[in-house]
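Hi L.,

You mentioned the student needs an example of a multi-chain input paired with its predicted structure. This one should do, with 502 residues in total across all chains.
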Amino acid sequence: MLGLKRFFKLIISSCFDLMPILIVVLIFQLLVIRQPLADVGQLIIGSIMVVLGLTFFLLGLEQSLFPIGEAMAVSLARKGNVFWLLLFSFLLGFGTTIAEPALFAITQKAADIAGSAHMIENSLTAKADYALALRLTVAASVGVAIVLGVLRILLGWPLHYFIISGYIIVVAMTPFAPAEIIGIAFDSGGVTTSTITVPLVTALGIGLANSIKGRNPVTDGFGLIAFASLLPMIFVMTFGIVR
Amino acid sequence: MSEWFEHFLRVFFETVHNVMPIVVIIICFQLLVIRKPLPHPGKALLGFINLMIGITFFLDGLNIALFPVGELMAKQLSAPEFMNLPDGQASSNWRDYGWFYLFGACIGSAATLAEPSLLAVAHKAEEISGKTISAWGLRIAVSLGVALAIGLGIFRIVTGTPLNYYIAAAYTVVIIQTIFAPKLIIGLAYDVGGVTTSTVTVPIVTALGLTLSSSVPGRNPLLDGFGLISLACLFPIISVLCYAQLASWRAKKRHSNHS
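Structure written out for the whole complex:
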């Protein structure tokens, strides 16, 4: 019974989450473009699906993703073996990124750009190789990023030193990187962190900060995603320079 | 109906396929390294199925309803006929795209409010901070940041100025803010940039960039369409740090009034 009540509460809050988009679309369509909506039926069906989707997602988040992430962080920390913890962190970052559809799309496009700019041979196999290499680069960078972030939580180093020096490296590298790769490098930081990665990685950080004495989950638990959106930029630009 | 069901199943298995690597890693570590069963295996499995159903419905709903409408509207708003230009030629004057800025900013910030990963992080932040950080306050701050980023990103595409100037300037602002902002928020603020650009925001922002860079004369959609995401990644950091700064000033003022 309690579950049903929770379910309806989530449905209502999901409606509120979707409402702003619908309002923006309606206002612009009716007042600015002044044309009737193309397909009202599709819009309504799609909106209902989005609301249901958000509801199920949030349910699943509370039931599995958050508890699993935190439980694993706690038991790996209790085990006291740093190697396994770091290996887990790397694989988590690498594994979630390599299968990310948004990354697949962006590397494909990057290969098209490189092909038309004659950086690589403009053939299908050369482009496929380039896209794969880029995808592996980004996935490895996210793996390294989570490892660095976890090390930071373990050792208690302040986050902003890392991020600020990361920014300085990015800005210093930009003039040396080929122009075709810069836009992709900057965007690759944003696209790597998906709907599954974010809650899992957040839970990992908070679980770790909770289980280590003297760490505050709010100040120390966050920051893993920040590494995961910074390092891909540096790695992709290096990839562009080395290649 | 059966056609729809088939389509649903296909999308569902695609989602499952995408998360397979993570599931394998988690199971391997649980069995081989931690060597203990998961605390509530039944509940975890149910939750995982709920997650998959949720993501499937969510993505499919977006594809059916919102993405096509958004794309069509972006096209209509950047068409020369809509902008009332005398000779029916597309314009490269940034002043002519007024409605487009407004639409981009509004749809970007509205999309941010529906972003599942931001929802997850905001709830978690509210929970572990003991409600010092409010989930809605955080989400609204982020969505304002995205609105600003998209407005500026559109300006950049129309004028064709180099992306790295904008990035360097935004970095400088973040660094200065970091020095003054309350230490509690810094980790969360840095995280929020990567969190925002996910399932809803990335496709919408990409579509805006591509539409615009293919309609403004002299822009190459392959080169100039990029970059909006990186701005949408940076500006929420700035707006969340601002939000924290304002909140701490207000708290200080209240405190000094009491004493």
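You could point out the following to them. The two ends of chain A are 60 Å apart (CA to CA). Residues 76 and 82 of chain A are 8 Å apart (CA to CA).

Best wishes,
N.
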